[in-house]
Specification:
- By secondary structure, this protein is mainly alpha-helical.
- It is built from eight helices and two strands.
- The chain has one domain.
- It has a two-stranded antiparallel ribbon.
- β1 and β2 form a beta hairpin.
- α1 runs parallel beside α3 and α4 crosses α8.
- It is elongated, with a radius of gyration of 24 Å.
- The two termini are 36 Å apart.
């Protein structure tokens, strides 16, 4: 075999590993793919399988891969960071859902009832877990996992291998754009329960003021709990619409995020 062919094979192998590192970064961070219920060997197999599919579509002409171990390791870490940033953009959407559920729990009175979340490895509130699982189901039903893999595949055209640039707008897009939008979405998700319980609290205060003989606050907790759960159940259809809107906006946000990592020259 000619020496030039051997060199090309080695370079292709180096590029394949870098492609796999970017995919691994996404699999480690993005919801659904990073769930702790998925065994690590399955995640590794998924990373390699996606890398095999994506590899022929990646333009490797002009890619400069360092020959020394230190430089190659630095490039590999950079590629993993690109995938992790894309996955973090998706994670913010699901964090908005969990935050909305936590806010609703605080108003209903379920915040003291904590359950273990196997995904995060920490305790979380009941509604936060419920809404998170609903969001995962809707995410899969609308093809969000395929959309995420598509964004990742297209990112190799926008951000070539070993040429990612994090100094021009990535932090601004995450902190100012997507993080702020996360809080807005959380308020929208929790708004029905928060508004209904606020009105219920006002009504109970008026009743307690006008009819002092009725100790309304003895039944206040049970009333807020029951009313809160009913409002959450009635608002689930609206939640589905909100989540679909969030996932649709997420596509544009991820594309903007990828373009923010595009090399200047």
């Amino acid at each position: 075999m000619p020496v030039s062919d051997i060199i090309n094979i080695i370079n292709d192998l180096k590029c394949f590993v870098l492609i796999a590192f970017r995919i691994a970064g996404l699999v480690m961070i993005a919801p659904f793919f990073s769930h702790n219920a998925i065994p690590r060997n399955v995640k590794v197999a998924l990373t390699i399988a996606v890398a095999v599919v994506v590899f022929p579509t990646v333009n490797r002409i002009g890619v400069r891969v360092p020959d020394n171990m230190g430089g190659y390791f630095a490039v590999a870490v950079t590629e993993m960071a690109v995938g992790a940033i894309i996955g973090f953009g998706v994670l913010l959407v699901f964090s908005a859902v969990q935050l909305g559920g936590f806010i609703a729990d605080q108003q209903i009175g379920l915040a003291i009832a904590q359950v273990f979340n196997p995904d995060s490895g920490e305790e979380s509130s009941l509604l936060a877990d419920l809404l998170y699982m609903v969001a995962v189901v809707i995410f899969i039903l609308v093809g969000g996992h395929r959309l995420l893999l598509k964004v990742l595949a297209v990112s190799y055209d926008t951000v070539p291998l070993a040429r990612a640039d994090f100094a021009h707008g990535v932090a601004d897009k995450l902190s100012i754009g997507m993080v702020s939008q996360m809080f807005v979405s959380a308020v929208k998700i929790s708004a029905p329960a928060v508004i209904a319980l606020m009105l219920a609290t006002i009504v109970m205060a008026i009743v307690a003021r006008t009819v002092p003989e009725m100790n309304i606050f003895n039944i206040g907790f049970a009333l807020r709990l029951g009313l809160g759960l009913v409002i959450v159940a009635l608002s689930l259809p609206a939640l589905g619409w909100i989540l679909q809107t969030m996932f649709a906006r997420m596509t544009g946000d991820l594309e903007t995020l990828v373009h923010a990592m595009k090399p200047v020259s």
